[in-house]
Amino acid sequence: MRSIPAPSVITAAGNKPKLIEEFVGRATTGTAAVSIARMKSPAGWMEPGQRPDFDEYTVVLSGMLRVTTREGALDVGAGQAVHTSPGEWVQYSTPEPGGAEYVAVCLPAFSPDNVHRDAPVAAPGAAAQAAPGGGPSRAPAIGTEEAMALLARNAEIVARLAACPEEQARWRPAPDRWSVLEVVNHLLDEEREDFRLRLDLLLHDPSREWPKIDPQAWVTQRGYNECDPAESLAGFLAERRASLQWFADLRAPDWSLSRSHPPFGDIHAGDLLVAWLRHDLVHIRQLVNLLAEHEKARGLPYRTDYAGA
To answer: Are strands 91-94 and 19-24 parallel, antiparallel or unpaired?
Structure first.
């Protein structure tokens, strides 16, 4: 029998301070086979993505731990556990108020040499280095792996928001406004015919002309609001999976590559990458607003102003 009187405090990675107390492992007991640590991370904490050489079993004691992989995001609540495998890209975060407390068991034991973290993400607002042509010469602050995780997370959010009754999916708050179904079909066509295609051309065949697109006209030309809601959502999710595979196959992309594209002037591969992520969020916000407006209309003659903004 061996008593372990106190844990060792391990330096944590991430955007905010986090407490790691190792009870068993290389630092505390000299154990290489397994490490056991208690973690306490604050609200809004996120660590860089990593691709460790160990199995990690995590039991959440309080709060919620978000575990993001290439397949999507999983929210693990108090009393639940999650397992990630060696070689699997994973990113941990605690986005909810109060943060989270959890216990992580790693087999073999955690060490800075076997966790294989992504390169540090540049701080928001960090100045880009100027390229000879006046544009940014470095990679965007959001790396490829993190972009994949965000795209997977965004698709999951869209799927949840769009999972509404068919009548609600086709409902428009005004004749000139889009429905939930029209937003989903817009995301589907943008995924298939805009962002992935144009970024691929810019990275691999920059002299080739981009196929023309007309997203606003497609809403009526392609009869978005007459499409089957389930098939439309399934189509978007299938295209997003194809995009994630495309990202996985990328090798050392040059984000500074650019071409002239009126009315934007010179547009870089990095511009398309970050615009793709923002495009998701713009339409996620649109979906949230549509759901809120539908509930307001459905609640008449009663008022919703007590809900706030």
So the answer is: unpaired
Q: CA-CA distance, 144 to 243, in Å (whole number)?
A: 12
Locate the DSSP E strands across 4-162: 8-10, 19-24, 35-41, 45-46, 55-69, 72-77, 81-84, 91-94, 100-107
pTM of the model: 0.59
The dihedral formed by the CA atoms of 282, 162, 247 and 66, expressed in degrees to the nearest 10: 90
Q: Which two tokens stand for residue 4?
A: 């372990």
Domains belonging to the chain, first-starting first, are 8-115 (2.60.120.10), 144-307 (1.20.120.450)
Q: Which two tokens stand for residue 182?
A: 């029209």
What does DSSP assign to residue 119? P
Q: Round to whole Å and give the CA distance between 105 and 181.
A: 44
Residue 117 in tokens: 């973290």
Q: DSSP letter string over 54-95? A: SEEEEEEEEEEEEEEETTEEEEEETT-EEEE-TT--BEEEE-
Beta bridge partners of 58: 82, 104
pLDDT tens-place string over residues 285-294: 999 999 999 9
Supply the Cα-derived Rg of the chain in whole angstroms.
Answer: 23
pLDDT digits (tens, 9 = 90+) for 155-200: 999 999 999 999 999 999 999 899 999 999 999 999 999 999 999 9
In order, the DSSP letters of 188-243 are HHHIIIIIHHHHHHHHH-TTSPPPP--HHHHHHHTTGGGS-HHHHHHHHHHHHHHH
